[in-house]
Design goal:
Two copies of one chain form a homodimer. Chain A is α+β, with helices and mostly antiparallel strands and 445 residues long. Chain A is built from twelve helices and 19 strands. In chain A, the strands form four sheets. An eight-stranded mixed β-sheet of chain A has the order 6-10-11-16-15-14-13-12, sandwiched between helices. A five-stranded mixed β-barrel of chain A has the order 1-2-3-5-4. Chain A has a three-stranded antiparallel β-sheet with strand order 7-9-8, with no helix packed on it. In chain A, helix 3 packs across helix 11, helix 4 runs parallel beside helix 10 and helix 7 packs across helix 8. The first copy, chain A, is elongated, with a radius of gyration of 26 Å. Chains A, B: InterPro entries: Aa-tRNA-synt_II, aa-tRNA-synth_II, aa-tRNA-synth_II/BPL/LPL, Asp-tRNA-ligase_1_N, Asp-tRNA_synthase_2, Asp/Asn-tRNA-synth_IIb, NA-bd_OB-fold, NA-bd_OB_tRNA. Chains A, B: This is Aspartate--tRNA(Asn) ligase. Chains A, B: Keywords: Aminoacyl-tRNA synthetase, ATP-binding, Cytoplasm, Ligase, Nucleotide-binding, Protein biosynthesis. Chains A, B: It holds the Pfam family tRNA_anti-codon.
């Protein structure tokens, strides 16, 4: 196994080293050839003779050479190994690459998103694109670490479910032996069950939604971060926990993701001091007053409303984050707790940030009778959700939680235009790795 | 939110405390009532008057009381709070439980596994059952931590795939808009693609297999731990990494899971010094010599062979773990590397431990031509696996990896009789939370 990553060459000046990686770019000056050798740690410049000119981009190389300090006037500040280069003594192509369909080095790839996705195995190697998933890893990791510090337990939520959790819209169906089964749209029922077991739980799970449209904000498969906890005194504790974890994540991204952020022109992320809270009706009034757009009768915010209220929060509170609370009962799932002091409205919230909805949460009904009554009123069949009902039948504390997509928040953090960019292998109604209509044409299969 | 967990009462002697939890057991002596109050940290004994006798098992309680040291002769060594009890001053039932279908306290529940699963939301609250998932959390956590120490990057592998990765057997089909899609049986193709991006990767993913039989060792949905890495000098490095991570996990279980292990009569897990390695043919010869059972022409080990070779390793090497290597080419997936020094056999291994197969791994073919040739020879269609082929087309280093189910290893660690016990919500051909034939009878839906 390789002993040295290219980034470590800066500490090996005058030493003989063996390096392994990919030829990222080749600058062939005939008698002298420069190669940027890339591995998972970064890039280092190789210098060799004309024999190196047979090497092509993405060839996999084994290199032996000597690390040399570059003269001051040739130091490259843009890369962490910019003060050194490696004079090649011996080299070998471990694996030869075919001619690339497009140039994959540099921060400005001159190709459209569909092309990047058609060549995903290749385009992911681009350092700027790869950086997106370094950020995603930090987001997920710090979600876990932040909640563990608050005595939360991680659990594994199922993908195959017996019954859609919140009615049947936009759910994928699975042929399950002789039965019909479904793919989980959320771990909602399971995280509530687990509150009965561990009190405070979280799960990182795949959520699958048959989104029937192709938009820049929706995926059919997402990696979703869910938390749920019991023994709350007030539903505001749920927002407080959500605020804590968002701040924790942003802080960790700043501490560990500096190199990745740089690719997106970011020095560090702005962390809100305190996230303001508005009832939906208050937010709609503010939007009306600012824009003249009157959506005050709507049960939810439109995307342009989300951008506007995020802008308002930035101007008024110095942060683009804002909690919108008290959505109408009819607009929230059947298990959402109604505010006894504001009937018709729920103890629920969305977190808006980066001009869009990032997170949703709220207090849940923990009384079995009320829960069953609500489900019946909405014609939601819970026959196969017996385990969910059990959790309430045998004693459930007051509880609540929140949920957010890892892709959506990474999209916000990095200012990506399309959520597909924030998914390693994005799926939508036309794409599962490959573009399905291209492959099948009109004769869909 | 609650400020104090019951376990913390040991540090609060003579103080007034507020506690929240579930009434686990009630011992009603008429004038005096003892209640074991359970929360996620453990159990503490409450002492109160006759008014407490209205409380039933699993009622959710808010308690105010005074922590008192127990007299020496009444100390309970079995629980961490055994030196104290709480004299109840004020109490409230936050949520009333219905009569339980069976007693859920204690380490010996007198019910069958199907009943435990039919009442999973309740049975998971039993401390011995809950302990299984504390161990699972530690296993998954330490898999992550151990590999991060070796410069591995975590990635999110998809659940919905365009094409079964290794041929079509036992794959679930999904209705994907107007197309057919499938559920991932393993993250194999994706982890190999990601070696081209991050060199060393791992993923914790859901793997779905339409196992057409109900056995004690198979689930249709598992949480699987996969690692894959490039720039290997020899395939033996893959086994070395597998050995490292298994030892790392067992060490962490010992350090963090002591309380959970105790429920299963375990003080600590035995950690192998060095895991022996045998070719399949050598193992079969040993088994033949020990038992007279001649499976030397078989391409794989039977369950009873696995038990026998694990027994042999225990006697001969002081560990029940043993790597079995060099399975025949025909028996391994098309991407498995053939041993150039032992043609017809592969550079692949299974890890046997606790008398069963725990893990599988090996070196992969990294040359596109050979890979495509092998797939064609086995009639494996890779048309929709274009991204996988790209990874090799554009330069892939020599690489390999391994995979193991989190449920299977937890089953081994705790000596569980059935792998369903090690899955929070086990799925098999007859069960998705509920028992499907009971619900639907002969009229399957």
């Amino acid at each position: 196994m390789k002993a040295l990553f290219v980034e470590e060459t800066v500490n090996k000046i005058s030493e003989e080293v063996e390096l392994f990686g990919w030829a990222e770019t080749i600058r062939d000056h005939k008698k002298i050839v420069f190669i940027d050798l890339r591995d998972s740690s970064g890039v280092v410049q190789l210098v060799g003779g004309a024999d190196l000119s047979v090497i092509s981009p993405e060839d996999v190389l084994r290199i032996k050479g000597t690390v040399k300090a570059r003269p001051d006037n040739l130091v490259n500040d843009k890369i962490s190994t910019g003060k050194v280069e490696v004079t090649v003594k011996d080299w070998e192509i471990l694996s030869k690459a075919e001619t690339l369909p497009f140039e994959i080095s540099g921060d400005n790839l001159n190709v459209t998103l569909p092309v990047l996705l058609n060549y995903r195995a290749l385009s992911l190697r681009n350092p700027k694109i790869k950086a997106i998933f370094e950020i995603q890893e930090i987001v997920i990791d710090s979600f876990r670490n932040g909640l563990k510090e608050k005595q939360f337990t991680e659990f594994q939520s199922p993908v195959i479910i017996p019954q859609p959790a919140e009615g049947g819209a936009e759910v994928f169906e699975v042929k399950y032996f002789d039965y019909k089964a479904y793919l989980a749209q959320s771990p909602q029922f399971y995280k509530q069950i687990m509150v009965g077991v561990f009190e405070r739980v979280f799960t990182v799970s795949k959520t699958l939604r048959a989104e029937p449209s192709v938009t820049t904000r929706h995926l059919t498969e997402a990696t979703t971060l869910d938390a749920e906890f019991g023994f709350i005194d007030s539903w505001e504790e749920i927002m407080a926990m959500a605020e804590y974890i968002i701040k924790f994540i942003l802080k960790e991204v700043n501490e560990r993701g500096g190199e990745a952020l740089k690719h997106y022109g970011l020095e560090s992320l702005s962390i809100p001091k305190e996230i303001p809270r508005l009832k939906l009706r208050e937010a709609q009034k503010i939007i009306f007053e600012r824009t003249g757009r009157d959506n005050q009768q709507e049960p939810d915010l439109e995307p342009e409303d989300e951008r506007e209220i995020s802008k308002w929060a930035t101007e008024k509170h110095g942060t683009g984050f804002v909690f919108i609370t008290h959505y109408p009962v009819a607009k929230r799932p059947f298990y959402t707790y109604e505010d006894p002091e504001d009937l018709g409205y729920t103890l629920s919230f969305d977190l808006i940030g980066y001009g869009m909805e990032l997170m949703t949460g709220g207090q849940r009904i923990h009384q079995l009778d009320k829960l069953v009554e609500n489900a019946q009123a909405r014609n939601i069949d819970l026959q196969r959700s017996e385990l969910y009902l059990q959790a309430f039948r045998y004693g459930m504390p007051p509880e609540g939680g929140f949920s957010f997509g890892s892709e959506r928040i990474v999209m916000g953090i990095l200012g990506l235009a399309n959520v597909r960019e924030a998914s390693l292998f994005p799926r939508d109604m036309e794409r599962i790795d490959v573009h399905l209509p291209t492959l099948y044409g009109k004769d869909k299969k």
